[in-house]
Design brief:
By secondary structure, the chain is α+β, with helices and mostly antiparallel strands. The protein folds into two domains: 81 residues, Winged helix-like DNA-binding domain superfamily/Winged helix DNA-binding domain (Arc Repressor Mutant, subunit A, Orthogonal Bundle), CATH 1.10.10.10; 36 residues, no CATH class. Helices cover 47% and strands 19% of the residues. The chain contains five helices and five strands, in the order ααααββββαβ. α1 runs antiparallel to α2 and α2 crosses α3. The chain is globular and about 45 Å long. The N and C termini lie far apart (33 Å).
């Protein structure tokens, strides 16, 4: 479903759906919930398109961000891709990142900060 929304949004904004871009969307549809690093996505993309550069991947991801289809955040020195663009909480431990949708917590944070929440990263042991 995310991939179809992304394709529709890209087309409406005049972007071509190239084979490389389509593969990127497919990868993000498949592993996006794991909050993959750009490096991980690049490795998967290069399996099918070995000549795709990191800068090409990066510019495509920035386009997706500008269109509101993904968010980016840094964790342990790596840029991670967030496909869940609804307000939520990322619970982060050593092995994974789990999305928690808790509107009560989000509303409390928004009320206390006076700002809208995109997502919140919480590190746990």
């Amino acid at each position: 479903m995310w991939k179809e929304k992304a394709i529709e949004t890209l087309r409406k904004k005049g972007y071509k759906i190239t084979p490389q871009r389509l593969k990127l969307l497919q990868i993000l549809e498949e592993i996006g919930k794991t909050h993959p690093s750009l490096r991980e996505v690049h490795e998967k993309l290069r399996k099918e398109f070995p000549t795709v550069s990191f800068s090409t991947l990066y510019s495509n991801v920035i386009t997706l961000k500008e269109l509101g289809l993904v968010e980016l955040f840094s964790l342990d020195g790596e840029t991670r891709i967030e496909v869940n663009t609804r307000p939520h909480i990322n619970i982060i431990d050593d092995k994974r990142i789990i999305d928690i949708n808790d509107s009560e917590i989000i509303e409390t944070i928004e009320r206390k900060t006076g700002r809208k929440v995109k997502f919140i990263n919480v590190l746990v042991e």
